[in-house]
Amino acid sequence: MPKHGNSLVSALLVTCALAGPVVAQPGLTPEQPPAETASAAPPAGAAAPAPQGPPPGSTQATFVSTSSEGWEVLLDRQPACATPCSIYVPPMRFVTLRSRDRVLLDVGYLPQGSVIVRGKPLSNGAYAGGIVGTTFAGMGLATGITLTAVGCATDRERMCTAGLITGGVSAVGLYLSIQLMRSAVPKAEVLPGAPYVSGNTVGLAGSF
Predict the structure, then answer these.
(1) Which CATH number characterizes residue 95's domain?
(2) pTM score, whole prediction
(3) Segment holding 59, helix H or strand E
């Protein structure tokens, strides 16, 4: 009996030694959201960013046409708007007007402030009249010079006088015909003023 008792005690000691201390396992923690996701949403009550205004030194320009033919406004050769329109033109941007028949009209760099840019298309009637007047006036001037040279050189007083009159009248006609052609060509005018735009209507307020 003592022998069996000793064996039972030994078995209990061996079992305790093999089991060792009981260690608690750490529990799984919930996955944390990424830092970008947490910072992407703005905090509650934060004000929205204010919209950016025009660049410093910009020009408030209103573009109009003097006729029913419209113009396309180009900034550094890139389309910006079509007349009538009012936009802010940043500084050092080259302004060009382009007509429907692809005629380019250089306006240049605009000054600061508020300006009105008026595009005037080609006046076909006036231009054709200038060409006709220049042709006939040029022929008359050549005839007057010839008559004057021959008449005055040969002491023909009437021929000399007729040459002077013909040449003088033709010279005046040639000058007026050239001025008519110059007034008929397309051109742009930059005028100071305070433009206002309401829908498709552009008003002009300023001195002309």
Answers:
(1) 2.60.40
(2) 0.54
(3) strand 59-65
